[in-house]
UniProtKB/TrEMBL annotation:
This is Flavohemoprotein. The record marks 32 as: Involved in heme-bound ligand stabilization and O-O bond activation. Heme b binds at residue 88. The gene is hmpA. InterPro entries: Cbr1-like_FAD-bd_dom, FAD-bd_FR_type, FNR_nucleotide-bd, Globin, Globin-like_sf, Globin/Proto, Hmp, OxRdtase_FAD/NAD-bd. Its cofactor is heme b; FAD. It comes from Microvirga mediterraneensis.
Amino acid sequence: MSTSLSDTTIHLVKATVPALQEHGLAITKRMYERMFRNEEIRDLFNQSHHGETGSQPKALASAVLAYAQNIDNLGALAPAVERIAQKHVGLNILPEHYPHVAEALLEAIKDVLGDPATDEILAAWGEAYWFLAHVLIGREKAIYTSLATAPGGWNGWRNFRIESKQKESEIITSFVLWPEDGGPVLRHQPGQYLTFWIDVPGQHPLKRNYSISSAPNDQTYRISVKREPQGVASTWLHDKAEVGTILKVAPPAGEFSLNEESPRPVVLLSGGVGLTPMMSMLETIAAKYPNKAVHYVHGTLNGSTHAMKDRVRSLAEAHPNIRVTTFYVEPRPADRQGEDYDHEGLISVDWVRANTLLDEAGYYLCGPRPFLRAFVGGLALAGVRSNRIHYEFFGPADEILAAA
């Protein structure tokens, strides 16, 4: 494999940018249509991202465009490549899967663009695809090796039994998972997620990512799942999965994690079910770094949706360095200000600027996309450097060759 792209390929790929801006979505839709004719390849993907919203084809169209625009500056895409590699490992993507994507992508470019997709253009895109594919394959191999050789680690799918099931709010339920083989489990990095293969009668195999909501230990994981109105997997977990149910689970993955080596204070910002990775971080800090200053700011609709309130409160009462502030968007009459929540309304960037350690802290964010758009950009405009802003989101990433 070449260690760099040829000048000709760089020139030709950049020349396709206008066509990708106009026809990129049509290309990615056609690509997935072709790929999903193969059931084995189809089942690698989270099909909830290919439904009515078509979020994955849109994300991939943006990703392919970003790759073309930055093909002469690939260093700018390094964070995106790491995120994709982590997601691929969670989904158990292997080198033998990449040719299927290459074939479908090149055929889709030819189908949609027609005559302008000359043999030279297709050859350039073939070289560009495989260059990136080999970068991802190499990084994924390193991750797979690290996971397989770590204490309690594994590759692929491992059976876990639901040991306990606890309702945390009207819409969120926690599941504690114990490995069926009785062996130890890999100690995850606080903030990471697990990928699940879920078999629901009448459905194709479902792939879902759920953040781990417990501190690392050698025996179990806990996930806390929101029931989504149209969510097949979340509804099945809430209504059908019981203590003793077996789930197929991939090893912990994700580049969003608490920097445990940093001496900085920590601000955790979450909206709704975005609290799940924050609980893992909060429990870890309480157990291992009781002197670290932490400000946990959480927003939710009201007391009916406020999950794990008592757990957070007990951690704060036991550790004076943990400060908690809660916002309810629409408090119920039964919700008590000063006890159940602190402020009414949405968390704002201005409030965060005025009430957290803006000049000192590391910021960790998780929540709905509007929440992330507001705070990732808002914190940057407020002067927080990008290396102190860390965030997690699920769903298709608007990045190169996202295949979650």
